[in-house]
Write a structure and sequence with these properties.
Layout: E1 58-61, E2 64-66, E3 81-84, E4 89-92, H1 100-110, E5 116-120, H2 126-129, H3 132-139, E6 145-147, H4 150-156, E7 164-166, E8 174-176, E9 182-187, E10 197-201, E11 206-210, H5 228-239, H6 243-254, E12 260-263, E13 269-270, H7 272-283
Parallel strand pairs: 4-5, 5-6, 6-7, 11-12
Antiparallel strand pairs: 1-2, 2-3, 3-4, 8-9, 9-10, 10-11, 12-13
Helix pairs in contact: 5-7, 6-7
This protein binds fe (ii) ion (FE2) (2 copies).
């Protein structure tokens, strides 16, 4: 019988970390060297805030971790996320082959790989899930499943995966974990792939939005700070098809009452940043809108 998901080192997570002082290489000047596996803070902006170390997994909420990679040589930052529940561990958008070693090391900060029970591929792009076959080998869990939209499953079969697929369209667009915790899947067709979907951790009201709400920028921080809307603009202009598709999806997502948006690129959005991001994307002309002759 499988053991309940257990954090490595038995660390209790009581809060989240801040991003002040992040540097381009992902380190923090005031905290040299490798910090603890997971930085813990007592509250946002309060006197006990502890800066996080981007070389390690970072707690975003209780049981939700950023395990991504900041590559200072590109404008595109790979955000993978780990959700650690009582008896399930879910790795969301495990990333690319070049990202594999960093992401897996950060996963190891939190759990043992064989504890991972579900991989989510929000769509088929190589930066999203190109390393899935390698992750699958390391996880080496015969019960591992891969959750993806059927249009994505059709394409990622080309990766030669051996795990079972979990098709949300055949399961009420939700996955109930063994504890009863619910993941909701929201299809976001053509944003930017036919099989793109958002994954929502209902318990923490965290939305893992993949390319939606993503950003590209030279300056980057894990938690959105000044300039995050400007970073979202060129990314959506390039990768989203048109405002006519983007706007209704953003309006629908806005009604969901998320507390946190975790995109696969760019920065994590929280609090008032969500309203600003929804407003920005609803009005953003993108893709075909920017073609000559299209207004
Ligand atoms: Fe993509
Ligand atoms: Fe992407």
């Amino acid at each position: 019988m499988r053991q309940p998901a257990r954090r490595r080192g038995g660390r209790a997570i009581s809060g989240r970390a801040t991003h002040e002082g992040d540097q381009a290489d992902g380190s923090r000047g005031a905290t040299p060297g490798r910090q603890s596996a997971v930085a813990v803070a007592e509250g946002r902006g309060g006197p006990n805030v502890v800066a996080h170390d981007l070389n390690s997994a970072v707690a975003l909420a209780r049981d939700v971790y950023w395990v991504g990679r900041h590559d200072p040589d590109t404008l595109l930052h790979c955000n993978a996320y780990l959700l650690v529940d009582e008896q399930d561990v879910v790795l969301i958008d495990p990333g690319s082959i070049p990202d594999f070693h960093v992401i897996m090391r950060k996963v190891l900060d939190v759990v043992s790989p064989e504890q991972i029970t579900l991989l989510v591929a929000s769509h088929q792009d190589p930066d999203v899930c190109g390393n899935t076959a390698v992750v699958e080998e390391v996880v080496n869990n015969p019960d591992l499943e891969i959750a993806a939209h059927p249009e994505t499953i059709r394409l990622i079969r080309s990766l030669g995966l051996r795990s079972r697929y979990f098709d949300p369209s055949e399961n009420g667009w939700r996955r109930v974990l063994k504890s009863g915790r619910v993941l909701e899947f929201i299809p976001t067709p053509f944003l930017h792939s036919p099989g793109a979907m958002v994954t929502v951790d209902v318990k923490t009201k965290t939305a893992f939005t993949s390319d939606l709400f993503g950003g590209i920028s030279r300056e980057w921080s894990l938690f959105a700070s000044g300039g995050y809307l400007e970073a979202m603009t060129p990314f959506h202009q390039r990768y989203m098809p048109t405002n006519a598709v983007l706007r209704p999806c953003i309006e629908a997502l806005e009604q969901k009452g998320f507390e946190r948006i975790c995109p696969q690129h760019g920065s994590v959005l929280e609090g008032e940043q969500l309203a600003a991001a929804f407003a920005h994307l609803k009005e953003l002309r993108c893709g075909l809108d920017l073609r000559a002759g299209n207004g």
